[in-house]
Amino acid sequence: MNEQKHKQIEFAPLKSKKITAVFDEPDVSSDGGLMLLREAMGRNNIVDRIAGSISDTRHESYVRHQMRELIAQRTGLIACGYEDANDCDTMCSDPLLKMLAERDPDADPLASQPTMTRLENEVTAKDLMRIGYAFIDNFIESFGKPPKMVVIDMDPTADYVHGKQQLAFFNAHEDEYCFMPFHVYDGLTGRLITTVLRTGKTPNAGEIKTILKRIEERLHKAWPQTTLLFRADSHHTKSEVMDWMESKGMQFVTGLSYNTRVRKVFADTIRSAEKRFEQWGRTVTMYADGFYAADTWSHPRRVVCRVIVSEQGTDIRFIVTSYAHASPKYLYANIYCGRGKMELMIKDHKTALKSDRTSCHRKEANQFRLFLHSAAYVLLHWMRENMLKGSQFARAQFDTIRLKLLKLGTRVENKKTLLRLHLPEACPYQQSFAKAMASLNTG
User: Fold this and answer.
1) E strand residue ranges, 198-326
2) How confident is the model at residue 1 (pLDDT cuts 50, 70, 90)?
3) Roughly how many angstroms between the first and final C-alpha of the chain, as a whole number?
């Protein structure tokens, strides 16, 4: 590899000048924005919480990389687009990555791929349980005071597998073997609450209730007066889950699958919308509510119907809710449809941070990988929410933030009492970079 690094590369000449290149500068990094992430890591405790949740059974005399350093290294790599453990080999000597992990740029290299892979495969189920609670506790800590409401948005997303991983399952809808990990966010702030790896099928009541129970216990213990609202699609509308939420005082607005019985409850509304369309010749939208109980439900619940009649036909959707007084239109159009923002959160997590790189065999190792990508989400979201507030990146996707703020060529000048980072003078985003740091000093 060193021979390849120092091999001269020749380009087409510029006028009479010969152009060559060689990869031989050890004090230069392509990821100068890691210093912004380091500031976020110093103020958001997710990396410390994860490191403190893992039982380190290594013999102290052989340990070269502390647990926090390993988590910081891997999380920083994921944030910068190096999502595979193999990237640890090529990036272990990067000076900015060393500084992120609290090492001097001239110190020994960071962990290699085998070290990182051993860590992934040595994490136990008990460690993972503690890490799961660490994410919830970190979410609680992110609020300066108890919020009036937390909107618990939960949704599984397909994570395709291409081997014999534990929990892999053929999903007919996806037409692939996959996992279907739960992603759970606060719908009002976009902050991650937790992520849970699970098999690639529709969630059952036991799975949903188990996750909600752990979240509810933690949140209500910290915030007894905070209203918890559960929001999800029809796959989560289970009688056992709704009974449990009602017993805990949780509100819910969830989708309800179309069926002929519930359609009959709203037959008049549907006919009225269709007649209006025939009369007016333009799209008609109507909302109505009523009470309905499936055979498995313990009692009737309020159901909202949304009907749209247009040239394309009649579109009917239903939701079920615990709210007794809010208007049907507000419940559907504002509350339920508001969960569409969660797709952007999953996009940041899954697409920008490549959290579907769950190629280990053991389910515990893949869950740990999912947590590492979740830690990168937490840090980048904190950075966007706090350091980039009011800037052009306040609503940017994570891959945009990475491209324009993290991926900055940087030369490190390492003196006895000073580390100076030389960033490109022509960088078009230097003002945003500077404001991000200034926001910490004023906040």
Assistant:
1) 227-232, 251-256, 284-292, 301-310, 313-321
2) very low
3) 45
**Helix (H) or strand (E) run with residue 269 in it:** helix 267-280
Greatest C-alpha distance within the chain: 86
How far, in Å, CA of 219 to CA of 145, rounded? 13
Determine the pLDDT at residue 3.
Answer: 53
Alpha-carbon gap, residue 33 to 93, rounded angstroms: 17
Local structure of 294: helix, strand or coil: coil
Nearest to 348 by CA among 328, 322, 321, 376: 376
Q: At 392, is the secondary structure helix, strand, or coil? A: coil
DSSP-based three-state secondary structure for 173: coil
> Hey, how many other C-beta atoms are within 10 angstroms of the C-beta on 55?
11
Can you list the domains of the chain with their CATH numbers? 25-124+362-442 (no CATH), 256-321 (3.30.1300)
Rounded Cα gap, residues 318 and 26, in angstroms: 60
Residue owning tokens 């992120």:
100
Please give the C-alpha separations between residue 433 and each of 124, 184, 393, 414, in angstroms, as whole numbers. 39, 30, 10, 21
- DSSP secondary structure code for residue 303 in this structure: E
Summary mean pLDDT of the chain: 95
By CB atoms closer than 10 A (0-12, 13-18, 19+), residue 30 is: middle
Length of the chain: 443
pTM score, two decimals? 0.94
Q: How far is CA 107 from CA 63, 102, 409, in A?
A: 15, 10, 20
The angle that helices 67-79 and 363-382 make with each other, rounded to 10 degrees, is: 70
- Per-residue pLDDT, averaged over 214-234, amounts to 97
Place of tokens 């397909």: 158
Give the confidence band of 168 by pLDDT, cuts at 50, 70, 90. Answer: very high
C-alpha angle 129/38/157, rounded to 5°?
45
- Residues contacting residue 28 through CB under 8 Å, at least 6 positions apart: 95, 409, 410, 411, 412
Number of H helices, E strands in the chain: 17, 16
Query: How far, in Å, CA of 11 to CA of 30, rounded?
Result: 21
What is the per-residue DSSP string for 53-86? Answer: HS---S-GGG--S-HHHHHHHHHHHHHTT--STT
Sequence letter at residue 130: R
Report, in this order, helix, strand and coil percent for the chain, each rounded to 5.
45, 20, 35
